[in-house]
Design brief:
Strands 11, 12, 13, 14, 15, 16, 17 and 18 form an eight-stranded mixed beta sheet that branches. The chain is an alpha/beta fold. Helix 1 crosses helix 2, helix 1 (13-23) packs across helix 10 and helix 7 packs across helix 8. The radius of gyration is 24 Å and the shape is globular. It is built from twelve helices and 18 strands. Residues 98-102 have low confidence and may be disordered.
Length: 480
């Protein structure tokens, strides 16, 4: 299966023009065009690996890997039973959905357990290689239409859950029907669609429907749980339902884990996670601190802060402090009359050994995606908010402490250009080497030398790691 078999990420024309202008500040215009085109093509594909974090303090790598194998084996057994039921039912009714021997073989081949490997420098990660399935499955005759987010999740290994289902064709008249799953790339379908969708859509795999169409849509709200078990995926991504296992496993992209390793939190330290939801990096930091020290996790949205609190509790980390707070309000802006910030928890300036600013960003590095809601206006506004947060982050770090800045965007305006601005605005800051270093050097934008770019860690989807787009910079605040 060639990369071109899945469409590239479609950027809004104004956003594409803006990104080309930004990249052209780092390289010749023709190189900028080639890089952006190649990046968008890769963003339409899943990353090369799925990574799962575990706690080496509780179990060995071998034990964690076996736990994942057992989880995948149980799921494969359940799916095989459903596929057998579907084949029997289809044969009995002589429908076009009869599961042939080749379909069964394809299902079995697609669910061969992936090889589980270690990641150099990140001993708490299990890496599962996600190869493309060959031959490519041909769509079943009956169709389940899902929203774009659900469709992209299927490409990364997920089954189809109720809230993502928009429509089912009338032929899905009995449970255990073999179906083709399509993602609605136009977001135009209304829930309850009862015919083949004729808009722009993307085939993401075949599966077995748990319910018939009438039973599914007779309810006002989508039924909970899995509604289509994916049996013939396009990529050999593992389907990992980790609900109830939050204290053992956590799905986390490789660069996100590297960012926490670069931060290097240690037991007994005071650590601030400024923009913490949904909590993957927070719980990773907590694991490295081994329950000793102080970890403060902030989230501006009260709803997301409550979800974060529940998540860290489920992960067995009651000592982590979670607060609903806007991190830009932790300190008074320079030049304003001194007054106490409006926060109800102790969070003094220059009081943290480690500060992680995983800044809100455009999310342009997320993959797989074939549609992009980000506008040029969004891309131009993001760096301004990131600078506000960074200015606060610098003031929260103790002398001799560390500040790590990261985003899940490939946009230099949110990455290298923020670093250039930071070094010019806060001349006492020092860029520091990163370990582990699994990405590539930063792009040389105005204000950065080649030596400084070599200290940055850029993850471009076209790069050797084949991950989501991501960026990491590590700064040291020197002793007074």
């Amino acid at each position: 299966m060639a990369d071109t078999d899945l469409p590239p990420l479609q950027l809004q024309p104004a956003l594409r023009d803006h990104l080309l202008q930004v990249f052209a500040r780092c390289m010749p215009p023709d190189s900028a065009e080639k890089l952006l085109t190649a990046t968008c093509a890769k963003l339409g594909q899943p990353p090369a690996c799925t990574t799962v974090r575990f706690d080496p303090g509780r179990e060995t790598f071998a034990e964690a890997a076996q736990g994942l194998r057992d989880l995948m084996a149980r799921r494969a057994h359940a799916v095989s039973a459903d596929a057998a039921t579907a084949a029997t039912a289809a044969t009995a009714s002589a429908t076009a959905n009869t599961a042939s021997d080749s379909d069964t073989a394809m299902t079995a081949a697609a669910h061969i357990p992936p090889i589980i490997e270690a990641v150099p420098g990140v001993p708490e990660l299990l890496s599962l290689r996600c190869d493309r399935v060959s031959p490519v499955p041909q769509p079943a005759s009956e169709e389940v239409l899902v929203d774009a987010a659900c469709g992209m999740a299927v490409l990364r290994g997920a089954d189809v859950y109720g809230p993502g289902v928009m429509g089912m064709t009338p032929g899905i008249a009995a449970p255990h029907t073999r179906v083709a799953v399509y993602a609605d790339l136009e977001a135009k379908a209304l829930r309850g669609l009862a015919k083949t969708y004729m808009g722009r859509k993307l085939f993401v795999g075949n599966g077995i429907a748990v319910r018939d169409r009438t039973e599914f849509f007779q309810q006002a709200q989508a039924p909970p749980g899995v509604q289509v078990f994916i049996t013939e995926p396009l990529f050999r991504n593992p389907s990992l339902d980790l609900r109830g296992l939050e204290d053992r496993f956590f799905l986390q992209n490789l660069p996100s884990c590297v960012a926490v390793r670069v931060l290097a939190p240690a037991p007994g330290q005071a650590v601030l996670d400024m923009c913490a939801a949904p909590g993957g990096k927070t719980t990773h930091i907590a694991a490295m601190m081994r329950g000793s020290g102080r970890l403060v996790a902030l989230e501006r949205s009260p709803k997301r802060a409550e979800e974060l609190k529940r998540f860290v509790q489920a992960a067995g980390l009651p000592w982590v402090e979670v607060h609903a707070a806007d991190a830009t309000k932790l300190v008074q802006p320079p030049g304003q009359a001194a007054k106490k910030p409006k926060i109800d928890f102790p969070c003094d300036e220059a009081s943290f050994d480690r500060v992680l600013l995983d800044a809100p960003c455009t999310g342009l590095g997320q993959r797989p995606r074939n549609v992009c809601p980000t506008s040029a206006k969004d891309a131009m506004e993001a760096p301004q908010y990131q600078k506000k947060l960074f200015a606060v982050a610098v003031r929260m770090v103790k002398p001799g402490g560390t500040l790590v800045y990261s985003t899940c965007s490939f946009n230099p305006e949110e990455n290298e250009e923020i670093v250039a601005w930071a070094l010019a605005t806060f001349p006492h800051l020092q860029l520091a080497p990163q370990s582990p270093y699994l990405g590539e050097p930063g792009l040389q934008c105005p204000g950065l030398t080649a030596e400084q770019c070599a200290l940055l860690q850029r993850y471009c989807p076209t790069g050797r790691a084949d991950t989501i787009g991501f960026f990491i910079a590590k700064f040291l605040v020197p002793e007074a």
